[in-house]
Every structure is written in structure tokens, then in C-alpha cells.
Specification:
The complex is a heterodimer of chains A (111) and B (111). Chain A has no helices and 11 strands. By secondary structure, chain A is mainly β. In chain A, strands 2, 4, 5, 6, 9, 10 and 11 form a 7-stranded mixed β-sheet that branches. A 4-stranded antiparallel β-sheet of chain A has the order 1-3-8-7, with no helix packed on it. Chain B contains no helices and 11 strands. The relative contact order of chain B is 0.33. Classes of the chains: A mainly beta (111), B mainly beta (111). At the A-B interface, strand 5 and strand 10 of A face strand 4, strand 5, strand 9 and strand 10 of B.
């Protein structure tokens, strides 16, 4: 009963490098989300996908792209990483009930 | 602008010393108020959803209440294992239902 699984758990990137954060859920949820969590700022929505085949921008989408690969998987891509993208990234999903279930997070450092 | 504010930022209690955490919100059209628990290095874990003023939910030593302006998380006779950061989030509808998070209250319960 895995819930929401994120990979990797930790990553260090150099400025300008690219990477993709992976997320998969096994709860048959329609909606999936990517958040970032920074000290003193709370969780902020980057992108979301209300259903398979759709994606939309959240509060802080600049510098990111997403792909809803299928109902289970929702990936977040950083094309050219910047130090300002150092953060902890969380993937979440929700179904018919609005409460979101979160993964364990990816701690990303951009140097 | 939708805003959620939590207080205090940090709270230290002795085991058995009851207290309350506050979550005040200013949002356009509250659809629900959520409480999450977050342990260090982990993703937020869902606790409660409240939908209308006057509603209460309980789980072990925790009780969440909701008014038209704020929510409280009451912790009765806390134990050290209740130490965590508690997040609240308002569910708002801006064309799509999204969660607006507060910055959390860090709770430390000493034996």
C-alpha cells in the first residue's frame, strides 16, 4: 500500500543542469499536484493536473514543466536549474474527496 | 488574496499540558479547512477536514474546530510522540479547487 511515491529522495544539481522528478500514485486518484516547501513560506502549488491529459499552472510555475504521463504518473521537470529552485518538492494526489495525500518529498539543492 | 495564518510559529509543551493551535483564514469562498501533521523529513499526513462553522472532528488527543474566521487544533494531554509540525490549509475554488497552506506550528512536547 505505497500511496504516493516520489523519486529521487535527494538530489544535488549544478546551476543550469536539468532533471526530472518522478511521482506515481496507486490510489486511482484523478488529480495530482506538485508543491514546493520553503522555510517560512509554506507549501506552494507549482502545477496541477485535474485529470489524465490535463495540466495547469499553480502559484509558482516559472522554471518548471510537467507531464501527466498516465493516470498514475505525474512528473516535474527543471530544464535549467537555478539556486532559487533549491527546495523540498512534494507530489500529492486526491480523488473524489478533496483531501490530498502527499509523497515523502524530494530534497533538491542547486549549487 | 487568499491567505492562511497559523499561530504560534512554535510551541513547547510539557507532557500532559493541553493547548491549542490557531489557524486564521481570509479566503474568497472556503470549501473546506484541512489539518495535516508533518514529521521532519516526511510529507504532510492528513488529519482532518472541516466543512462548516461549528463542525468538530476528533482523533485520539486531537480535536479540530471551525468558526467562520478561524480553526483551532486542540491537543489534550499531549505525549512526546505528538511532536511535529501541524499545517492547516484552506480549500478554495478559483476555477479549480486548490489548497492554500499556512506556514505551520512546530510543536515540541517534552517528557
Amino acid at each position: 500500500n505505497a500511496g504516493v511515491t516520489q523519486t529521487p529522495k535527494f538530489q544535488v544539481l549544478k546551476t543550469g543542469q536539468s532533471m526530472t522528478l518522478q511521482c506515481a500514485q496507486d490510489m486511482n486518484h484523478n488529480s495530482m499536484y506538485w508543491y514546493r516547501q520553503d522555510p517560512g513560506m509554506g507549501l506552494r502549488l507549482i502545477y496541477y493536473s485535474a485529470s489524465e491529459g490535463t495540466t495547469d499552472k499553480g502559484e509558482v510555475p516559472n522554471g518548471y514543466n510537467v507531464s501527466r504521463l498516465n493516470k498514475r504518473e505525474f512528473s516535474l521537470r527543471l530544464e535549467s536549474a537555478a539556486p532559487s529552485q533549491t527546495s523540498v518538492y512534494f507530489c500529492a494526489s486526491s480523488g473524489l474527496e478533496p483531501e490530498a495525500f502527499f509523497g515523502q518529498g524530494t530534497r533538491l539543492t542547486v549549487v | 488574496e487568499d491567505q492562511v495564518t497559523q499561530s504560534p510559529e512554535a510551541l513547547r509543551l510539557q507532557e500532559g499540558e493541553s493547548s491549542s493551535l490557531n489557524c486564521s483564514y481570509t479566503v474568497s469562498g472556503l470549501r473546506g479547512l484541512f489539518w495535516y501533521r508533518q514529521d521532519p523529513g516526511k510529507g504532510p499526513e492528513f488529519l482532518f477536514t472541516l466543512y462548516s462553522a461549528g463542525e468538530e472532528k476528533e482523533k485520539e488527543r486531537l480535536k479540530a474546530t471551525l468558526t467562520k474566521k478561524e480553526s483551532f487544533l486542540h491537543i489534550t494531554a499531549p505525549k512526546p510522540e505528538d511532536s511535529a509540525t501541524y499545517l492547516c490549509a484552506a480549500l478554495v475554488n478559483t476555477g479549480f479547487q486548490k489548497l492554500v497552506f499556512g506556514t505551520g506550528t512546530r510543536l515540541l512536547v517534552s517528557p
